[in-house]
Structures are given as structure tokens and as C-alpha cells.
Amino acid sequence: MALNPSYDAIGKGFVQQYYALFDDPAQRPNLMNLYNAETSFMTFEGMQLQGAVKIMEKFNSLTFQKINRIITTVDSQPMFDGGVLINVLGRLQKITYKNVYYELSI
Q1: Which of 35, 60, 63, 95 is the most exposed place for a label (fewest CB within 10 A)?
Q2: Domain count, the chain
Q3: pTM of the shown model
Q4: Does 49 lie in the same domain as 17?
Q5: 73 & 104 share domain
């Protein structure tokens, strides 16, 4: 299969949609639709989670309701199967104003 020439626009659009859902507590459950029920993986502070249900359980266990996010870069790479690998780098700031650095690959 050919590489997707729109990989950069797809990556940036996906990140925008993802965080719009994540930041709205009423819409956050819809993130489950973006994860595969069995094969999606997430590592959070050294804890490895597999599957949409486990990932959503982790999101629901987070203690903050609002967080400031400063995205430094969104790097997207085309995949040979037509997909897009997205790497997001930035900084999170809780309401307590403690900085937390993060990196997200989707």
C-alpha cells in the first residue's frame, strides 16, 4: 500500500480532535472509539495498559478535571499500510501549577 501524502494534516487534525474530546469530561468517554478493544497499548508512568477498557479506566482514575497543555511539537510519519504514526511532545500543568512533561505517540 502507498504512503498517505496527507499524513501531516491527518496527524495535526487527529491531535486537535483527540484533545478536544479529552478536555471535555462529557465527551471523554468517546475516546474509547479511538482505541482498539484488544490491541491498543498505553504506558502511563511505567504502568502498561492494553485494550480500550483498561486505557479508559486509567483516564477515569485521573484526579484532575482540568489541565493546561502546552504542545511543543506534533510530528507525524506516514506508515506503509496507509496509516499515520503521530508523536506529540509537550508539557502539562495541573491547576496546582506543577509542570509535568509528556510525550504521546499515537
Answers
A1: 63
A2: 2
A3: 0.79
A4: no
A5: yes
Q: Give the dihedral of Cα atoms 55, 86, 101, 54; nearest 10 deg.
A: 0
Integer Cα distance of 51 and 28 in angstroms: 16
Assess whether 42 and 93 both reside in one domain: no
Q: Which of 92, 96, 97 is nearest to 45 (CA)?
A: 92
pLDDT value at residue 88 = 95
Domain range spanning residue 16? 1-25+65-106
Q: Are residues 50 and 87 in the same domain?
A: no
Q: Is residue 41 a contact partner of residue 48, using CB atoms and an 8 Å limit?
A: yes
| Average pLDDT score over residue span 3-15 | 95
Q: Which residues contact 76 (CB under 8 A, 6 or more apart)?
A: 7, 8, 10, 11, 12, 84, 85, 86, 87
* Cell triple for 76: 507525524
Tens of pLDDT, residue by residue over 35-76, are 999 999 998 889 999 999 999 999 999 887 778 889 999 999
